[in-house]
Write a structure and sequence with these properties.
Four copies of one chain form a homotetramer.
Chain A (H helix, E strand, L loop, with lengths): L1 H8 L22 H16 L6 H8 L3 H7 L3 H12 L11 H17 L2 H15 L1 H28 L8 H19 L5 H15 L2
Helix pairs in contact in A: 2-3, 2-5, 6-8, 6-9, 6-10, 7-8
Chain A binds a DNA duplex (31 and 31 nucleotides) through helix 3 and helix 4.
Chain lengths: ~210, ~210, ~210, ~210
DNA sequence: GATTAACCGAGACGGTACGTCACGTCTTTAA
DNA sequence: TTAAAGACGTGACGTACCGTCTCGGTTAATC
């Protein structure tokens, strides 16, 4: 009973694959979710997450405010999902050598950070996560997810004997990714291929035996 | 230049040494600035910068809202200055060797980042700077200022022959500081002495000849 | 013409009989207008139109301030309508003779002016109308409306041969109504039956052939 | 002691002929009273008594707000005096016949009411007097003072045998003055010589034997 | 085919905070 | 001591956005 009310009251955005109850009544408008999330990101980019008004999002999405609140419990929840959509994980290819793998991964990372959804959204994500435990956890998940390919690269490097086995994985990953975050968020220095090369030049000798 | 008009209209919070105009009329209440800024940070810590109400700050500071708006042009401007006050730069000592200097500097940095004003405030600063050019510039200034001691350490190291002269300063600094920022803002991993030691162990060999 | 846009933006307080547009969205709260106007007059009577605070009216009416401003464009507009409601026109009966008709009308007028809504409100109405063209016009309308029955009485008198046909209607009406206004607003002399009789005694002979 | 404090604290606008105490310190600025009162009326005429700001008056008078409040206890007190200055009584001449005297008096009254200080100020005076007993009394005084010449005219008329002796003075005066007030404040009809003639034509026969 | 239940848009609702403005007072320096 | 200048606490203003709540109308699955 409670579950039904719960479900009917609020969003289904939890990857339920099969909700076989046929759901009487008019089904939810098909493209609305997409339109709302898109509008959310658009508005956020224009006026910042601060200054972002639900009425504006609703109008932009061609949707009523009630429709939004039928699907997300709060402005935070909506923004959260919009952010999650905005950033999708990197995946790493196996090019045969640590150097090439790292170069590929870091170039990819640099490119994404330089502009695009993640670039626009990351600062807001971070700020929000300070006072929102739920977002903090999702952000942690995301970060872990993003670290995974890098860990895999290093793992393969160790197996191939290209990387020293006595180093802490976390510290290594931090050493590679940290400078990107730092430049992006604080120094504003360019995130280009030259930087990737410099960084690789600096760090690669360290991790090779 | 624009700043002059700005200053005469609103606050004098720019460390001007000599304003020799006789300043007619009742002078601004002495401790008010301090009280307001303190109240701002207090309230921000309690309820977040979001959820922070000007009326509450005013009451807390024992001051009227009008007095606040006489000194700062907006809520943003007030928070901005409160944030700037909350973080003051690190300075580096000369302990005789690059290793010791770096260790000292990074431990200091780790300590500050782990908790305290800067820790609380940095995420907000970053987020805000996305849509506020003025804050962005102030943040850049601050960052540059904070990088200075690290550059000095490396410079001394080169002069002593402890550090390779063929490396890019910026990249080196990024490699040292980036991981701290990354951990603080995204991974949430601890910023302790062990991490400092790991990082130094990883990076020091790279920069020594 | 401008009035149409005006009306669609703000209140419908103009007695439109047929607004056939289907009126989408949640309809305006039914009794709110009444509650707000009543509260307005109540508060005004207690603390004067000066000293009257919108928040107080809102609270008294059990309504939010936004609801008030959704229906009236300003404090002035609200008060204006409250005032208009406070005074409703006299109507005249036909008692068969000019003397009786006039006596009835003037006694009615005297009674209303002596106390009640109109008495409380007229001074404010007048003052406000000096700098508010819109109110000035509404006041003119109201005045014209109030003069109508008196004109009708005199008209009937002429038809019956009880009243001279060579006199200016306006001047006659002014001569009858003016003394009431004068006493009410400036001299503070009583508006009682004796005064009505005196005035009739003075003026009736003049207008009869 | 109390008297001294009283005097030094607040205004001297009570016709003190000789204040022989030498009054240490800087003397009060000479033309300030005049300048302030003039500015008050000017501003009032421009934006209404509502909307009239003390700061504006001060600036207009070339005077500080403190100076105003040193001389008048409140905004009301200042306006009150400004109003009193704005209206000065009519006086009637003796032209030999009631008809001529009345015509002269009423033409004078019409002229004053049509425009000028009294015309601008009367509505405000009336409104204010509703909630201000002191002003109400001053207004009554003024009204009585203005009625006096009219009473004198009628008195002379009775003595000459031009006016019936059995009529109530007050009612007669009301019948003559009331229509002016009514037109001025409510109908907005013109106050010209034609109106004076009409009114005289209507009322004179009534009061003659 | 009628019923019914959940949806939809529009938009009004009670709140809460905003930044502004005017009041009357207070506190400086200058005359 | 009074003046001009201008900052002060107070408190109302009118606006904006929140998240909720009707409305009249659609759109399926169920009866």
């Amino acid at each position: 009973m409670a579950a039904t009310a719960e479900r009917s009251r609020r969003s289904d955005h939890n990857g339920d694959v099969t909700d076989d109850a046929p759901r009487r009544g008019r089904p939810r408008s098909a493209g609305a979710d997409e339109a709302i999330l898109t509008a959310t990101l658009d508005v956020a980019r224009e006026v910042g997450f601060r200054g972002m008004a639900m009425d504006v999002i609703a109008e932009r999405a061609g949707v009523s405010k009630a429709t939004i609140y039928r699907r997300w419990a709060s402005k935070e929840a909506l923004v959260l999902e919009a952010l999650r959509r905005a950033i999708n994980p990197l995946d790493a290819v196996d090019l045969g050598s640590v150097r090439d793998d790292l170069a590929s991964y870091l170039r990819n990372l640099a490119e994404r950070m330089a502009s695009g959804n993640m670039a626009d959204v990351l600062p807001h994500l971070i700020e929000w996560s300070v006072h929102d435990r739920q977002l903090r956890e999702q952000l942690d998940d995301y970060v872990a997810h993003r670290r995974a390919p890098l860990v895999a690269i290093l793992q393969r490097g160790i197996e191939r004997g290209e990387v020293r086995a006595d180093l802490d994985f976390d510290t290594m990953v931090d050493a590679f990714v940290g400078p990107f975050i730092y430049r992006k968020l604080l120094t504003g220095s360019p995130l280009d291929d030259a930087f990737v090369d410099d960084l690789l030049g600096l760090l690669l000798p360290t991790i090779t035996p």
